[in-house]
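Agenda item 2: flavin-adenine dinucleotide complex prediction
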Amino acid sequence: DARVAIIGAGLAGSEAALVLAEYGISVDLFEMRPHTMTEAHTSSKPAELVCSNSLKSMELPSAHALLKEELSLLESPLLEIAKMSAVPAGSALAVDRSLFSARVEERIRASSKITLHRKEIQRLPKGYDYTLIATGPLTSSSFSDYLQELFARDNFNFYDAIAPIIDAESIDMSKAFSASRWSDGPGDYINCPFTKKEYDQFYSALLEADEVKRHSFEDAAFFEACLPIEVVARRGYDTLRFGMMKPVGLDHPKTGEKFFAVCQLRQENVHGTAYNMVGFQTRMTFGEQDRVLRMIPGLEEAEFLRHGTIHRNSYLNSPDLLQRDLSFLEYPNLFLAGQLTGNEGYTESICTGHCAAQSIAGRIHNYSLDFPGNVTAIGGVLDHITTPPLKGRYTPTNINFSLLAPPGKKMRKAQRKAFYCDRSLKEMTVWKHEHGSFFKLRNHR
Ligand code: FAD
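Presented output:
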């Protein structure tokens, strides 16, 4: 019987282990937590979401929703568990993170095919037919060193910043109000509204706030989609008001009052006892976060269950290293998945974990499996990872429609989005049907 080792029980590794088990393949899944923790994880649970609790939009036509639809078509185990652990978040799929991870662990432990080892891997384990590396953006330093030795290629480090979480009871609801953008009724978000004067004071405090000192190994290349709030603020007085603090569509539901800016809080757990400050990733010191963020109307007495922090984020130069089935050119039985590939985001990491597992299962069952091209979202993600960029160096990205092949004729924006989604889902359905005999092997729940 073939033996597979998976290194890292994060989003990609857990997804891959569960998919392989469904193909009846035995997996040793190695996870270093809790013995060695990362800078962002706080538990020993698999598939821990380290920042936001949202897997983004579920509403078609959008690229994020499309990727999820495609993964649902392929019966992604983690996506199914995410849906079972959902909390209200408008059109987004947000989850109770503890429940989500607990259910992933339950599913892993219930599988007779998966053995979970709590151990930090420092070099590739011996004796396996296939190995999948899924150690993520916070890969342990000894294993990072080893990977750099093994591939002798550029490896990047850069910052990500995470948003604070607030105790719901400490929010002053006489100032804040519940509403979703543009919708009537109570709404899923708590909104903290600013007058111009309040915004001016907050903005000045933000610009002057002390930040955590950077370590020498971390350079200042922030990932654009996850910029710290103070960095966004420095780009101009109105940048926040046109970004994460946009007041549009958030007039007061009772009084109709309009606001100069709004800070939105999204429910963090099923019980509704914790709220996440949407888009407020920060590298202000904890003391400064207490001082500055409590200037937000409604958060004067805020109790921070978790402060915002900064984190390292690593990825490999995948287009030079990987084939489209996510195996290494140089080591065909070694695979890569998750954020280390340069995909960016929770769902994207689940996606590459899923694809790597399908590739390995195909090899073991002697089945030739070509993933669909970039007329699908999954194909777009795989192409991004395995195709050298036209210009400059390779950089990570979230799923977005620019990764998909254009329609070939001019269309209005809304029509184009709908086109991408229709085309992808049709293609994915046909592809799954064509590989029906392979998918039938996957019945070992
Ligand atoms: P992970 O989920 O991190 O899993 C990797 C696992 O490998 C971890 O459990 C780790 O403990 C383990 N491991 C590491 N080294 C070893 C070793 N040597 N031996 C054994 N085990 C090891 N994406 C979003 O969509 N939304 C967000 O809000 C978001 N916020 C982020 C915040 C931070 C601070 C970071 C770093 C990333 C964030 N991301 C976010 C990006 C990314 O989607 C997540 O990091 C995602 O969890 C990546 O999935 P993964 O499976 O590649 O890695």
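Discussion summary: The chain has a mean pLDDT of 91.
Owner for follow-up: CH.
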